[in-house]
Structure formats: structure tokens, C-alpha cells
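Methods — Computational structure assignment.
A single polypeptide chain was analysed. Its primary sequence is given first, followed by the predicted tertiary structure written as C-alpha cells.
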Amino acid sequence: METGFVCLSSKIAPTESTIVLQNGYGRTITIDSIDIGSCSKTFSYTLTSEDQKAFVLTGCSNGVSKEVFKGDIIVKYTEKNFNLSKTGYGVINTKIE
């Protein structure tokens, strides 16, 4: 993930994607949506500075167990102080569990 977000852990299953993010921005943000590969989900979860949370996306079509999964991560979020909508980008490369 780009500067500001820390990906503490992740898991890709055939029909579910999980990512654990930590807010390293030093200010409060709200997670609006997360895309992992072709799977996406909207959220409205507030993370204070250094707070962490597991985000689970269900109904995904990630492939078959033991196959390689590579996909873009797109996190749309809003800075609470300024009400600015922003987007963070990253990549995940792992085996499907």
C-alpha cells in the first residue's frame, strides 16, 4: 500500500478477500470503499490515527485454492478534518487459500 496505509495482513480465499489495514496518516479518516482485484465493497468505517481494522469483502470470484492471485488494491477514503475524498493504491500477490 502507499504511504499512510499499512497492510498488516491479508488473506485471499476463492469467494472472500480480507485485508487488515492500519491508519498511518496521523489523522482520522473514513474508509469509503475497498477493491481487491475484481471484488469490491463499500464501507463507512472511521479509523483514528494508528487504528487498525480487518475489512472483509465477500461474494468474490478470486479463483481456486492454491492458484496464484495478483490484483490491485484500491482504497477510497475521506479525510475527516477537511472532508477531502482521496484514493490509495497497492497490489496484492499471494496464493489463494
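Note: DSSP finds no helices and seven strands in the chain.
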